Amino acid sequence: MKKILLPLMVAAGLFSLVNSASAANYPESQFETNNYQENMYGAVKYISSLSADDFKNFPQAQVESGDMPILMKAEVGFVQGNLAVAGEGYYLLAKAYNDPRFITKAIYCYQTIGNQAALARFNELVEMLEKVAPDSNQARLYAIPVDLSQGKVGDAKEMLRKVMNANSGHQRDILLTIATLLSSKNYVLDNPSVPEFGDYVNDKYSEYPEARLVSIIADSLVAAPSSKNTSADQASKDLLSSMTYIRKNYPAWELPVFWSSGILVNENESELLYNLISQDMAQRVNPSPGIENLYVAVLLKLDRLQDADKYIETSAAYKDGDGNMLINEGIVEYKKGNSAEAIKYFKQAVAKGYGLDETVNFAIGAVDLSTNNTKEAIKYFEEAMHGNPSLMPMAGIGVVQSYLATNNYVAADKFIESMAVLSGNVNKAQILTTKMSIFNDFKQYAYAYKIGSANASKYMKDSKFLYQYASAAALSGNTAKAISLYKIYIKMEPKDPAGYNDYAYLLSEKGTQYKQAIELAQKAYELAPTDPAVLDTLGWAYYQDKQYNQAVTYLSKAYSATYNDEIGKHLQKALIAVGDTNGADNMSFAKAQDNTQNVPQQLADQAVLMLLYYQFGADVSADK
To answer: Across residues 376-395, what is the average pLDDT?
Structure first.
């Protein structure tokens, strides 16, 4: 079954729209989901082409040889979808060369990432682009959410007017791009300027359906039921009213309700979310499978499992044995804690040909594993792997965990070797290294160390083998052996910060040689000054040596880069040591769990989570 592309993709900046400036009525078929998607994919080329037009007379930067590795890393990261890596590279190049091409690439990366640190970079880059290319349509588009975040509604309106006038025949493209930018800019939330701007767009450009969509996005961003904020309360009412308008005038246009729901989910506005989808369902005679799935997903989000169950079981699709509804019922049963019933419905869905790219088989295997039915678990994990190679890593983890659940290390060992061979790791040293790495990841340190010890005489000259062997020795408590191995490793790989870092951390945790630990950690820091693991090790070594101010300096950097609980606890101790009790008291961490015992359950939860994404487009049932 072809899945609907939901707002997660829109928020990633993938959507634009079919070209048309006509105020005439639009054919209803245009708004059917599949047709609308095809139109949007085609028109995104136009939005992308704005850069070429904007900068065609701007001299292209000649990147110096020393910066070529940064450019190559950024380009590879962009192609692979690693926008954090790509954004960092483009940002550095933008700062170095002031080329709007690098600036706009960096803007795209940080706008898509969307966290607060990324949004700060986004603002900086937009200001940079406005200075470098003030007449750029791209600069004007990106400036709109920045202006709104600062309450500059007039400036935002002026930027939109200029872009709209400069792109005659593509106004719908522009409006949908604005909706995309607004939906992915977290800091415009709760800002009264946003719905004011949305109302302006809806009134000024009412001949275009997407003007109403901008208004819907704006209201969704600030709406809150029973809010003490008058603008938020009004936005809630306007949102529901706009949705009624959409259904009346464009009944096949489902994107607005999905998009708005995605925003409300992210902001945990459960009450308004329920009102929105309930109103939508009440006004539809024959809701599509996508809308039905959204309704079920909202009920799951609100933990109204009985209501979800009742709706599914009374639906015509369920009575007809529809695979889509069988999946919904299986998910509901899993949420209710009925693993056996969940598996039953998942198997029925697969039998109906509704396997969602093998994610259903993967879920069956994971739920089986969580109930100690390891033989069946292996069967379904392997079916998932064979049917969908992209599931091979996760399903492979499931197979290994299934064997380990029964202490069948030999079978796990053989399976890892077979997977290593399939992946192309035919070199014996590589296979052994892979095994040790996986057993270390599964906290089977003693077995990993056993593998290393048994093969050390043959493969000690292989640096990757040596590193995993040293790690296994350290993690399994063979400290003296680990130290000897790390000494060999850093001589073999003097430019790898990992060897110095791990050796330093081992000395900080297991010994009293803190001065030596600091020296080693400083060497790692010289090689990787922004690596949070290195910063944590250096800070922790200083703490152990009672150099608390130095400890706070490096641990703060490590924590602000990751917000990792373990690093945070190191920082908390350092803050207490320097007398900053307020800072220490303001830190909070997730409750520790026994990850060793919970791995099968965690895998089952992750498998069902993946199923939720395939089925509903987003995990609206998860706690936010």
So the answer is: 93
Asked whether the beta carbons of 71 and 89 are under 8 A apart, the reply is yes
Lowest mean pLDDT among 116-130, 175-189, 465-479: 175-189
- CA pair distance 461, 466, nearest whole angstrom: 7
Which DSSP helix (H) or strand (E) runs through 404? Answer: helix 392-405
Q: Dig out the tokens for 43 from the structure.
A: 């028109």
Nearest-CA neighbor of 385 among 376, 374, 398?
398
Angstrom distance (rounded) from CA 507 to CA 456 = 23
- Check pLDDT > 50 for residue 624: no
Where does residue 582 rank: exposed (0-12), middle (13-18), buried (19+ CB within 10 A)? exposed
CB-CB contact of 460 with 432 (8 Å): no
| Residue owning tokens 């060992």 | 413
Whether residue 20 contacts residue 172, with contact meaning beta carbons closer than 8 Å, is answered with yes
Place of tokens 């925003």: 263
How many separate helices (H) and strands (E) can be counted in the chain? 34, 0
Distance between CA atoms of residues 86 and 109, nearest Å:
7
Contact 605, 598 (CB under 8 A): no
User: Which tokens belong to 620?
Assistant: 């609206």
Residues 209, 253: contact at Cβ < 8 Å?
yes
Cβ atoms of residues 603 and 397 within 8 Å: yes
Residue 459 has which token pair? 């493969």
Supply 468's token pair.
């995993």
Distance of alpha carbon 47 from alpha carbon 177, whole angstroms = 8
Q: How far apart are CA 82 and CA 47, in angstroms?
A: 22
- On whether the CB atoms of residues 578 and 548 are closer than 8 A, the answer is yes
CB atoms within 10 A of CB 302: 16
For residue 588, give both structure tokens: 């909070």
Q: Is the Cα dihedral 347, 348, 353, 357 positive or negative?
A: negative
- Average pLDDT value for residue range 606-614: 85
Instruction: Compute the distance between CA of residue 19 and CA of residue 14 in angstroms, rounded to an integer.
Output: 16
Which range among 34-48, 69-83, 380-394 shows the weakest confidence by mean pLDDT?
34-48
Model confidence pLDDT, tens digit, residues 215-258: 999 999 888 765 666 777 888 999 999 999 999 999 889 989 98
Displacement of CA 299 from its chain's centroid (Å)? 23
331, 608 contact by CB (below 8 A) = yes
**DSSP state at residue 286:** S
Residue bearing tokens 């056993």: 450
Q: CA 163, 164, 166, 167: dihedral to nearest 10 degrees?
A: 110
Tell me the average pLDDT across 377-401. Answer: 93
Phi–psi pair at 306, nearest 5 degrees: -65, -40
> Residue type for 173, please?
D
H-assigned helices in 98-170: 100-113, 116-132, 137-149, 153-166
Q: How far apart are CA 89 and CA 92, in angstroms?
A: 5
